[in-house]
Amino acid sequence: MKEVHTKGLEKERIRLMESGELRVLWQVNEYLYDVELWLLNAEVNRNKWKFINLEEHRALFAGTPILIAYINKGAGIGDGHNFELRRDPKTGKERPSFTAETAERIVGSLSDDPRDIRLEERDGVTWIVGRGTLWKFYAPELVDKITADAAQGRAMSISIEAMIEKFHMEGDVEVQERYTPLGTTILGDHVAPAVKEARVVALGRGSFAELKVRAASYRGNQSKKNWKEGGSLTMNKQAVARLASKFEGYRIIGMSKDEKRVALADQKGAIFSYTFGEDDQGEVILAKLKAVNLDASVGAASGEEGLAVDVDEILDHVTNSVRDQAKTIEHLNKQLEEANATIESMKQAEQKRRVDSVKKTLERTMAEIEASEDGDVEELKEQAKALSEKAEDYAAQEDAEGAFCGDQQARKDLMALNGERCMKLAASRKNAGKKEYVWNRLEQGEDQDDGSIEALLHRMGIE
């Protein structure tokens, strides 16, 4: 393990940290392999180092190189972080040099897009995971070894190089607070990794539109393999329904006529292929799933060169557009919910105001009647109470222009009831003052007369 202290920065140094394994990779075409690297976590590694603040440093991995060293005249594929410290003839300062025969060299890179470097949790541990590409054109021996190792269940380890800018100690653990990733090195089989289970896995969605070396010029010129070797992609719906349960979590989007080859999409839109083997007996072995890339071409006029199109780029564009639209819709729905909540709150407040206005108007009207009347108003009070209990109904009443009028209508109804009471009271008082003579009663013959003194007195109104 090398540690290089850089003059001019007292606490700055390069940490060369074995950080995981290269397990699987997927071939984009004859010259390019897309990979996914599980780079770094915040656990204490075997060197007693701990890298924290993963989210703050995640995007710094974008665009960094993937390297490897060759030893024994190329027979040994992979070693450590091989470089020499040489003095700069101009400045006199020491600096790393990578010109030696066994020095590590660039064989790929992580994506330039920070969005391709993410945080992901696995088994309760948060990792920085990066999307990258290896260039088989410049490292065919490396890719051959990785492919052979994967076939036998073996894996190569990887390691990151980072410039440490700030750290502190927690007991015997050195905690790296601020650091700049410099690159990721694929290690030799004889080099033990420091971080457990960091790895490179198959990448399911496309490769990069542009690469840092001219290997990109081979991308659009390779012959495209298609599914016609195994039959047409016209799917048998019954066969799809029969096989769907065997690919839980995936949707079948293509199938050859002989049903031996299947195209699948997962819930994130990544595309995979699966081929049934002769000895599988119809059973699905998910470990045999292979990530694939979708390619298309744009037709050209005679004499013109055809234009290759990366369908994954189209899907990414459409997916991002849909995601943006979904966010906009979500934002608008949230605004609508907030507006509806405000309106509902205002409606409830207005309803309460109207109900209170109806009740207070009835109370005030009843008080005015009591103050101006000298008769018995107890029955009218009960009637006013009954009207008050209908305040919710009055609260819904509006005039032709939509203005609330329920409180005034309640007042009118109470005044009308009071008017009836006053009329009955006046009639009662009038009847009470009317004179009645004995002979009028005798002439009316309303009562039976049996000739007795009692009957006569009764007819005369004397009891």
What would your notes on this structure say?
By secondary structure, this protein is an alpha+beta fold. The chain has 4 domains: 3-221, no CATH class; 227-293, no CATH class; 336-432, no CATH class; 433-463, no CATH class. It has helices spanning 54-57, 140-151, 237-244, 311-372, 378-388, 391-395, 406-432, 438-444, 453-459; strands at 3-5, 13-22, 26-27, 32-41, 49-51, 65-68, 70-71, 76-77, 84-87, 94-97, 105-110, 117-122, 125-135, 156-170, 173-186, 199-202, 250-255, 261-266, 271-275, 290-291, 295-298, 307-310. It has an 8-stranded mixed β-barrel. Strands 17-18-19-20 form a 4-stranded antiparallel β-sheet, covered by helices on one side. A two-stranded antiparallel sheet has the order 7-8. It is elongated, with a radius of gyration of 46 Å. Mean pLDDT is 76; it is low at 1-12 and 200-233.
Helix count, DSSP H or I runs of 4 or more residues: 9
Question: Over all CA atoms, what is the radius of gyration?
Answer: 46 Å
Widest beta sheet: strand line-up: 2-14-15-6-11-13-4-16
- Would you count the extended β strands for me? 22
Q: How would you describe the oligomerization state of the chains in this entry?
A: single chain
* Total number of distinct structural domains: 4
Explain briefly what this protein structure is.
By secondary structure, this protein is α+β, with helices and mostly antiparallel strands. The chain contains nine helices and 22 strands. The chain has helices spanning 54-57, 140-151, 237-244, 311-372, 378-388, 391-395, 406-432, 438-444, 453-459, and strands at residues 3-5, 13-22, 26-27, 32-41, 49-51, 65-68, 70-71, 76-77, 84-87, 94-97, 105-110, 117-122, 125-135, 156-170, 173-186, 199-202, 250-255, 261-266, 271-275, 290-291, 295-298, 307-310.
